Structures are given as C-alpha cells and as structure tokens.
Amino acid sequence: MSTAKRVAGEAAAELVEDGMRLGLGTGSTVAYFLDALAARGLDVAGVPTSEATATRCRELGIRLLDVATTDALDLAVDGADELDAGLELTKGGGGALLREKVVAALADRFVVIATRDKLVDRLGDTFPVPVEVVPFALGPVGRVLTERGFELTERTDAEGRSYRTDNGNAILDARMPAGIADPAVTDVALALIPGVAAHGLFLDLATEALLGDDEGGLLRRSRPDRT
Ligand SMILES: O=C[C@H](O)[C@H](O)[C@H](O)COP(=O)(O)O
After folding, report:
1. Residue of the nearest CA to atom 12 in ligand 1?
2. For the domain with range 3-121+203-222, which CATH number is right: 2.40.128.270, 3.40.50.1360, 3.10.290.10, 3.40.50.720?
C-alpha cells in the first residue's frame, strides 16, 4: 500500500462528475484512482489506455467506451514516471505510452497523478524515454538512436523475452547521458524516426498534477495557460 499514490488517486476521483467521459490511465497510481472512482458509484464511462486497465474496470463495474467512436473526453487521469515544473512528462514505464498519448490528446483536461518524488528539474534525469518500436524496425531505430547519443536497453518481460506492448510492439528505453537539453526538439526528432510508433515524452498535454506524499499530503499544480 502506498499512501502517496492513494492520496493522489483519491483526489483525482473527487474531480469526476456524473456523466463525464473519462480517459483511464495505466499503472499502480491509477489503480488507486479506479478503486476510488468505482466507490463513488457515478454514472461515468471511460476509454482504457491498456488491456490491464480495461480488465480492472470490468472487475470494478466501470463502463468502457470505444475510442473509435469517442471524439472527445472530459477528463483523462493518468500516472507519470517524471514531471517537471511546467507539467511536461515522461511516461511509459508500464508500456502503455501509445494508447495513453492517444487518450490524453482527446481530453479537455488531463490530470496527472503521481508521487511527489517524481518531480524533476529536467526530463530524462531519473528515467529513460521509452520508445515504442514496430518490431520490424528495431534494428534501424536502435542504430539511429545510438548515433544520436542515446544509451539503449531493450525492454524484456518477466521471462527475459523481448517485451511486447498491447499493440504488439517492442520498447527501447533510451537514456541520454548528457540529459535531454530540449525536450521539444527531442519530441519531434523521435517521432519522425521511421518505425517509431510512440515515445514517452508527453509535452503540452497535462493540465494539472496531483502529487501525493507518504505523510498523506497533496500538492496541486496546474499549467497556467491551460486551465
Ligand atoms: O505505461 C505506463 C504509464 O505511463 C504509467 O502511468 C507510468 O509508468 C506511471 O506508473 P505508476 O503509477 O505505476 O508509477
């Protein structure tokens, strides 16, 4: 049990209103959000960002929406692996980055829930950028990333096999030893490499952050230009 994650998840559940269409993130912090949301018994429905979240929603009785027929969401709630003072994020530690980014982009409001220790001065300082790669392109993409100075680790599953996302893709965890000097430049550069399906830099998407700590405290941050 993590008090810090629970506090953040429960605070996010309080933001939900009857009738809302939600984006339902992925991860251990989101698990607390889903529990608290189900306990409220509201009439809501959401697009899940992973098979794991979809399964948990079915168990909890949270109605699911098909992303194919959902043009907009009122509120998305998701975790993060790092966030900076401007609410720019690194995500994808749980491998759900592609669907998470699609869902976040559909939402009018995107609330990040995390523990306070995930606040960083600069993205990439504590967590590599997960790069989701179509398996066919693993070699070429790996070579391009290495040429650009990234140190790569191909993600593996519990059995040591190449990890596969819900979309059937692999993940290269890419660390820039010198740090990511300009996330906006890296964002575009990564997205343009043929074979990259998605990457874990989430820029200009989050509107608010709810950050819990182990003493039960909650820090609220908002992006001034988006709320
Ligand atoms: O792919 C997974 C996601 O981006 C998660 O939201 C992120 O890794 C944070 O997960 P957790 O809340 O378990 O730390």
Report:
1. 29
2. 3.40.50.1360
